[in-house]
Amino acid sequence: MRNAVDNPFNPGSDVIPAVWAGRTAQLSDWRDVVRPRRLAGLYERGRTILGEPGLGKSTLVRRIAKEAAAAGDWVTQQLRVPSGSDPLKLVATALLKLADDAGLPASRERRIADAISRVQAVAVSGIGLTLRDRQGPEPHAALTDLLIEIGTAAAERGDVMVLIHLDEVQNITDGEVLSQLLIALGDAIVHEIEVDVPGGRVERTLPIAVYLTGLPDFEDMARARKVATFARRFKTETLAPLSDDDLAAALQDFVLRGWDVPDGSGGTVPIRMEKQAAAKVVDLCRGEPFLFQLAGEQAWYAGDTRVITIDQVRQGWRSAQREATAHIERILDRLPRREKQFVEAMASLPVAERTLSRIAEGMGLSKATDAGTTSQRLDRERGIIDRGRLYTFRHRALEAYLTTSWPEV
Predict the structure, then answer these.
(1) pTM (predicted TM-score)
(2) Mode of pairing for the β-strands spanning 234-238 and 74-75
(3) Domain match, 138 and 202 both
(4) Rounded to whole angstroms, how far apart are CA atoms 194 and 170?
(5) Are residues 115 and 63 in the same domain?
(6) DSSP string covering 8-19
(7) How buried is 137 (Cβ within 10 angstroms: 0-12 exposed, 13-18 middle, 19+ buried)?
(8) Tens of pLDDT, residues 159-177
(9) Distance CA 362, CA 341 (A)
(10) Which of 114, 354, 355, 366 is the most exposed place for a label (fewest CB within 10 A)?
(11) Could you give the dihedral angle defined by the CA atoms of residues 174, 225, 79 and 38, in that order, rounded to the nearest 10 degrees?
């Protein structure tokens, strides 16, 4: 009755889980702001969604892309940038597929044929065209031109969006490549064309939306390389852990109605979860989407009854403790030395004594201002702490790991 095929929880990377929790603000931003404004020809910035591992950045945009595809929009697959790869080639290949979906290769217009031909060259040679052959337009210009043609075709349809999702953007470590890529995407989303309306002609932007996802380091990289168009053309949000209310709401169907699974006789049977069991899942995962899916997955496997009990949640979590520990340790270990010292010093203090001066003292610094920049980065860019008169942890799983016996039950 409860088996691997029926399990609705999935802690796998980038998979859209059946049991969805939170992120309503970001989903509403797509449905109520980005898509309607771009379809209406109004300018709207691209979106950059950053955050520590396990917060569901890629999963969120995959869900947005799935909704867009279901609405008939032209959507790229998730364009994951491997470390050391050429993202221009990756984007060029995706644009050629979009052009094919839009029917552009069948067009006899010379400018479209030229744009496709130039992007085909980029798909083969990537940034090498810029480094080895200065003749002709640079790769970013070729990408921009084809994306404009695709966007124009979508605008002529009237009800179609173009959605591009570039993932793991922190892996773009070459400053020249990053600059070319952001300029190409940024130029396309600000490009205007003239269209006929009753009484004359007006200008409109193209129905193109760009989502970038990755680790918080990316924003620093873009700023350090002075990619001016990034700050103006992309709105950046750093995801925080989910609230307990969001997680409890995601499990409410389990508590009240149950999750239907095949009963082996052609019908279905609901699998329910005790209210206390649902509360225990919420408590264990500390707002982490990955850990929420992990706790649910293992609780499902911990028995075969029609009701998931709190004892089964505990039993399942014991099987997941090693993976939960490794997940948090990866987040902690990837912090720069000074930031890691800060969170460890902060965690060592009683909650009522977590002031900047006491934290700086714990780090061995002579004055509080010496820790100011570090605290700003952990707050604004990483979303791990909240600054104030007293400093608090926004990343509750990291706090629990540093201050309690969690993830032990």
Answers:
(1) 0.89
(2) unpaired
(3) yes
(4) 36
(5) yes
(6) -----TT---SS
(7) middle
(8) 899 999 999 999 988 888 8
(9) 9
(10) 366
(11) -150
